[in-house]
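dumping this here before i forget
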Amino acid sequence: MPSIRPESGRFATYLARAADALDAHLEEHPGDAMRRFSDWDPELKGELPEFGSGTDAAIERLLQVVLPNGPRMSHPGFWGWITTGPTTVGAVAAAVASVAGPQRYLMTAFNRVEELSLEWLAGLCGLDEHMKGVYSSGGSTANLIALGAARQWAYTRKGIDPAAAGVTGNPTAIYTSTEVHHTIHRSAGVLGLGRRSVRLVPTDDRHRMRADLLAEMLERDASEGVMPVAVVAAAGTTNTGAIDPLREVGELAHRFGAWFHIDGAYGLPGILDPGITHLYDGLELADSVIVDPHKWLGAPVGVAATFVRDRSLLFHAFMQEPADYLEGAFVEEPESSLDSMGIPYQDFGVELSSPSRGVIVWAILTELGREGMAARIIEDNGFARRVADHARREPSLELLTEPVLSICCFRHVAPPGSDPDEFNQRLLRRLLRETDFMPSSTLVDGRFAIRPCFINVRTTAAHVDGFMDAVLRIGADLTSELHP
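structure:
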């Protein structure tokens, strides 16, 4: 029977094997896992083994069966949604933290780096020094935390503690645009405000929230006794990368007594691109902001940050009740790392157990610095503009949105008599099955669009040009099939 205790002194051996396998995986890019489904799926079926196979066999199975058959998010041609494979330093930092700092609390270097990295990240993204943060698992949770602070703030002003007494009183509303990410609705539901409390404001021809219509909604609801909990603007929408008019929206939020939240999960680091920095005017009006380092910074998936102007609101909204096993466990003047929890992140969000995410962000920013991050973002935004230039030059392509950040929405012109949406859906399916280019799709003003989003650090201009050549080739093939 294999030992039930981990062997000491073997990390180097096994991590080296895993590192070699990962390097080979990134170099060789084994292709889509579904094409080999019949090979690996039977290997992963079966009952829980009565007796384990031991460390060597378990790691060998991991590297031979699971590793080669995952999603291809680290491939340089992956531009679907807003996700990517991690960079080397982020992945290494995550591995180190998982063993040496598996929790973010206690008075250790990992707790200290958690706060330092939040300070660095806030400064990188143009937030002022009063904005304090907390990490969580992703934009969904980060928005939930921010709107939890907004709820706490709004009800406390009415003399109600919603975290203790629940949500009571007048009807409430959260205002955001029709381009909002669906996590805002989910947050409203989880927080007891109700999905139906989310008011959707139409957008302009650049898919930005219309401040004039927001003002009308706020005026009407105020006259009907509706309490405005929050106004949510986007600094980079998921669909097109649009940036709402932050100053106009923020000033309206404050005029009507609402919390001003900015969802910058994807686009907040775009402020580092001098060509579009002006679009972030009004950022300083925000009461809360979120950003996901597992997007543009290249951190492993599961790293998001919420920043608020008053972190005590997070404490009141999310603090834990007293626990016997913790009360009396700590002292005011610590002499041991176990004498204090350190900065109490467990009371600033919904997680008690939480990995040390800050060390990942710290390592990435230590590697690149401000200038390195700016260069990466400028290049990625340039890739979106490169696609747009192709679309403008080619008569068979149609540009659906002018890129703002690193997303470009376009499509192929369908032959006469063909449905453009159906034609482009077929083109995208063939692109995904026949090539190594993996964009996603969306709807732009009701029209089906091919939507590459460039945040992949492994992408080059040659990949972008090859992608556009593939779109033209497949589009020509489909046109010939429909009109031989």
